[in-house]
Amino acid sequence: MQLNRLFPGLTPAPPALDVCDIAAHSADVVPGGLFLACAGGRSHGLRFLADALDRGASAVAWEPQPGAAAPELPAGVAGLRVPGLQRELGGIANRFFASPSASVEVVGITGTNGKTTVAWLLAQALEHLGQPAGYMGTLGHGRIGALRTAALTTPGCVTVHRQLRELADGGARKVAMEVSSHALDQGRVDGVAFRIAAFTNLSRDHLDYHGDLASYARAKARLFLEAGAAVAVINLGDAFGRDLAGRLPPGTRLVGVAAMPGTAASLTIEPVAASGPGQRLRLRVAAADLQFDSPLLGGFNRDNLAVAAGILHAQGFAPAAIATALASCQAPPGRMQLLPSAAGPCVVVDFAHTPDALRRVLEALRETAPARLWCVFGCGGDRDAGKRPLMGAVARELADRLVITDDNPRSEDPDAIVAAILEGAGRGPQVEVIRDRAAAIQHAVGMAAPGDVVLIAGKGHEAQQIVGHEARAFSDQAVASAALAGRP
Q1: Same domain, 271 and 417
Q2: pTM for the whole thing?
Q3: Which domain range does residue 413 map to?
């Protein structure tokens, strides 16, 4: 694309230069590409100019800084000074990738817990209904069954538009996108034309970044108050959801959902009875009152199913089709994932890494645990330290046996993380500390009796453990499955 089409109103030199790609990170630059050097929160992109040039950048757009001189560029490399470049990234990426969110219907899903499950359910349900669907989020991006892994729940702005274009060109007509609070605060979804915005719930998380719950909530609300979605699907069983529903911009259609009767929700998913390893549910919407079976466990998954059903309803699908589609859906990897076991304990792997998520999962498993409930978990380093004693208290309250271990300690002292968890969990014969995560899992699975339930929480689908600055191959599922296989 020619530079003057990417930057309308500015005059690059030479204006008709064609660039074959764009990148906001020097490591992503390809020969003949444009390097977008933005002023970031920690450093300026121009710090990495030499790397971008070494990789073959044919043009550089940079964000000026007070008192800083323009960069010296080699002959043949076009340069363009762009005030407020960071704010313009969404528009630039949207233009370069030919407005990909105009080619697919994008659903943005935000909330503290449930984003991954709702997006995963939605993508599966749409495929069942004959609608080619893409997924973008914590588990990767692509069509279900052909995902490419992701480093972030919501990647950088240029990558978001690139992935949307890839999905559109690959045949997807709808996209379920997880949208994190970091992404909303940092403009990573700028330029995306969301048709539907969906909200799951709000509880404590990421306060190491946002500072307080009010700032965290404001970031989440931006998807509904600033992104221009035509429809808002909101969980009215959540207090912040009810507040958000009352502040929507004029003209936004509200689809209120809940996992309980007695709210103002126009769609509810209510429990009927247990059904095998899952639950039988009732879908009420408009004049329809339908029952279906879901393999997903727990009240929190009724919330997730309600949000997914609300999105499908907003997309125009009939109630019977929604019920049938949701009945066909499986939980995503690492979300209440039950590991096969012939005669041993029931072992469940879940991503729960906040106090609220841990409570919801333990409460759901408590309903199904005929014997003891074990909980193996830790807390991530370099993240919100205030939630550690809260999670310890939740685990002590709801689990019969608690094994505290390492999660992703990163650069923090793991013993200090464990000590903070113990402030809430306390000490006693039912509380053990085994720092080595593999040993902790092996211990719990080996000691649990048939009929016991062992929850391994915190890492879910993750395939590595971050210790210091090293990412080591590690899978909760693999370790637990081997421990189950090794039981006498």
Answers
A1: no
A2: 0.90
A3: 337-485
